[in-house]
Amino acid sequence: MAERSKGRRAELSAAVAVFMLLVVAGCFSASPSPLSPRTVVAVGPLSHTVQPGETIYGIAHRYGVSAASLMAVNGLTDSRQLPVGSNLLIPSHRRIIRMASYSPWPEPRTDRQFAWPVTAGLVSSPFGMRNGVMHDGIDIVAPTGTAVRAADDGTVIFVGRLHGYGNAVLLQHPGGYVTVYGHNQRNLVTFGARVARGQVIAQLGSTGRTTGPNLHFEVRLQGQPQNPLAYLRQPSPSSGISFASSGGS
User: Fold this and answer.
1) What is the pTM (predicted TM-score) of this model?
2) Using CA atoms, how far apart are residues 7 and 118, in angstroms rounded to an integer?
3) Most buried residue, 9, 99, 146, 239, by CB count within 10 Å?
4) Which residues pair with 169 in a beta bridge?
5) How far apart are CA 37 and CA 108, in angstroms?
């Protein structure tokens, strides 16, 4: 019993350490550059949450559509009437732009393999330096409300809002691994819950520091960020997972 209690305290300490590291560091990414048309993909209805200071013309330019079509599809008659926090539907006929079906895998597969946290989406921003700041995970663009799934069996060690991440879920897995799921529209699990690989734990969204709906996914080992692509199976052409040729989300 003493050894079991000691083990549980050690696991809790590790979870708290990872959590505090995330809180202090924020989202581990600089203010992202605007999405270019190269990084926009038709993965279902694409929406954009209006941020302070944004204009119809700026949003239209970001997604490679005309201001007139953006206003028409959203029933807007005055470009000056753009409430902060409102969601704009991006015209669908311009959403399939150049993208890469695959990108060279950055490093060899690890023995420890996780499941993809979404079944379909566009990897728009890789692990590594971005705008001069380390990006500790990958961003996967998909429609708002897309099911976010546990990458493996684990325990919920945090659920709530984190600076930069918005609504987030952290799962602890055997072997000192923690996976992070950020920018969720809605979290669907509770602290301390046991979850199974593939179980839906959240709905994808655009909360926190982000330019649109995407999942920020991290893999950490003993608190240190790892390249998630080394822990994920390379997708087949029919898998629904693809890679942007440039940009970040």
Assistant:
1) 0.63
2) 32
3) 146
4) 159, 181
5) 30
